[in-house]
Design a protein that fits this description.
With about 450 residues, the chain is mainly α. The chain has one domain (about 15-445). About 80% of the residues lie in helices and about 0% in strands. It has helices spanning about 1-10, 15-50, 50-65, 75-90, 90-120, 125-130, 140-160, 160-165, 170-195, 200-225, 240-265, 265-275, 275-310, 315-350, 360-385, 390-415, 415-430, 430-445. The longest helix is centred in the middle third of the chain and has 37 residues, at about 275-310.
């Protein structure tokens, strides 16, 4: 008991906001760590069940559908900020209005998209887009695309419940439910391997439906219990609330679209420019190196709302200390990535049973891409929390404009293949790597004049 009490006392030391962040981070590391282990388990199982090429097709198809995730016009991020403000001011009626308006807006958008997109699934040239050699797979891929999109629409609306947890700075509980989702899918894929032949449709249906209905069940449960005061209602939908969400959301929307072009097009470019089976190699390297990405996602999710609260209260010293702490952790994750690169050939051989050959240079390129993405996210989450995102938005727009041409040039013209596409992503992010830390420094020193303060 002495050790437990000592650990508990250490956790309770410091500013209340720091204590909350510390507890959430520790819990999130546990849940995300288990989630990574589950992901490591079902990745080779997926390859064994579908084969390298079909699994690459599935990964590419989900990347295309993920583009629709940004059509919330930034309302999810706007809700996180506005709801956080309402909760801090103990205004439940305004909080319920923001929640109701956000759910109504997102539900309307994705209902309309479903009506438009689902019929088109059967006429779009999926085989050509995905560089699939078997023309007979057109019908199967079309049905899978329809299924993925329908499940995705349900997931996107139902996942709004997680924005409430973020607003309450209870980020770890979101990680727990995402762990539950991944665990459920692992059980299902094991069952598929035992009782069915390889089927792209069964695999896709199992994964997408699992990821859609867990947040739906979570939302129903919490809106009837802890979040009853904020339960969505059509009576509380307000046009002026939508404008308030959207005023923040439009810039977030532009940023997210740019981020999609940079980060979510890799699978599509690899499939179209190189080959579908190369997508599996890229995703394997990315999943392996996601361990140190996971650490930063945990920190930045907690940092967003905490920095918003600290900035509102003028607690700049707390923000400075937090930024320096996270920078030190960033350097630690870079050292971790170097070690992971060194041992990667042995890990891949053991993990994937030599079914997929992943070049060491691809591992290095992906590690560098993730490290630089973490660096940018460290500062941009501070900017997001303060709402001063104009410079960030312009930098993301520039990055998105040059990303695809650079990636294709490196991949095709220089013959670098998948590595070239990753290098294109890295080079396109240079403006963000430079500008984001400069702006955060100006904010912390109260020197954010002109465009730096917008």
């Amino acid at each position: 008991m002495g050790i437990i009490q000592t650990i508990k006392a250490k956790l309770e030391q410091g500013h209340k906001r720091t204590v909350t962040a510390r507890k959430n981070i520790l819990m999130a590391i546990l849940f995300r760590g288990l989630g990574v282990l589950i992901g490591f388990a079902y990745f080779p199982l997926s390859i064994e069940y579908l084969g390298v090429s079909k699994f690459g097709i599935f990964l590419t198809l989900t990347s295309i559908i993920d583009w629709f995730a940004e059509l919330d016009i930034g309302i999810g991020n706007g809700l996180r900020n506005r709801l956080g403000e309402s909760i801090a001011e103990e205004d439940d009626e305004r909080a319920k209005g923001y929640v109701s308006t956000a759910y109504f807006a997102i539900g309307s958008i994705f209902s309309g998209l479903a009506i438009i997109f689902i019929p088109f699934c059967f006429v779009l040239p999926w085989v050509d887009w995905l560089n699939v050699e078997e023309a007979g797979m057109q019908g199967e891929i079309a049905i899978l695309a329809m299924l993925i999109f329908a499940a995705f629409a349900v997931n996107f609306v139902s996942s709004m419940i997680y924005q409430i947890f973020y607003s309450l700075q209870r980020t770890a509980i979101v990680d727990f439910f995402q762990l539950l989702t991944k665990g459920s899918f692992l059980v299902i894929i094991i069952a598929l391997m035992y009782f069915t032949e390889d089927s792209l449709l069964l695999f896709g249906g199992a994964k997408t439906l699992t990821f859609a209905f867990v947040p739906l069940i979570v939302g129903i449960f919490y809106f009837h219990r802890s979040f009853r005061a904020w339960k969505p209602s059509l009576r509380y939908v307000r046009r002026d609330y939508f404008k308030s969400l959207f005023s923040l959301g439009v810039q977030f929307f532009i940023i997210k679209i740019a981020m999609v072009i940079i980060h979510q097009t890799n699978n599509i470019l690899i499939a179209g420019v190189v080959a579908p089976e190369e997508v599996t190699k890229y995703e394997a390297a990315y999943k392996y190196l996601s361990i140190f990405l996971m650490l930063f996602v945990i920190l930045t999710n907690q940092l967003w709302v905490a920095s918003l609260e600290a900035y509102k209260k003028g607690e700049m010293e707390w923000m400075k200390n937090t930024v320096w702490t996270v920078i030190k952790i960033w350097f630690g994750t870079v050292l971790l990535s170097v070690l992971m690169i060194i041992i990667s050939p042995q890990v891949f051989s053991l993990w994937l049973q030599d079914e997929v050959d992943i070049p060491i240079l691809l591992t290095v390129a992906v590690a560098l891409s993730i490290a630089l993405t973490n660096w940018v996210n460290l500062f941009n989450l501070i900017l997001n929390g303060t709402g001063k995102i104009r410079v960030q938005m312009y930098a993301w727009i520039l990055a998105s404009v040059i990303n695809i041409p650079l990636s294709i040039f490196f991949a095709k013209n220089l013959g670098l293949g998948t590595i070239g596409i990753v290098l294109g992503t890295i080079c396109s992010m240079i403006p963000l790597i430079i500008l984001s830390p400069i702006q955060v420094r100006k904010i912390l020193l109260l020197r954010d004049k002109g465009i730096w303060g917008k």
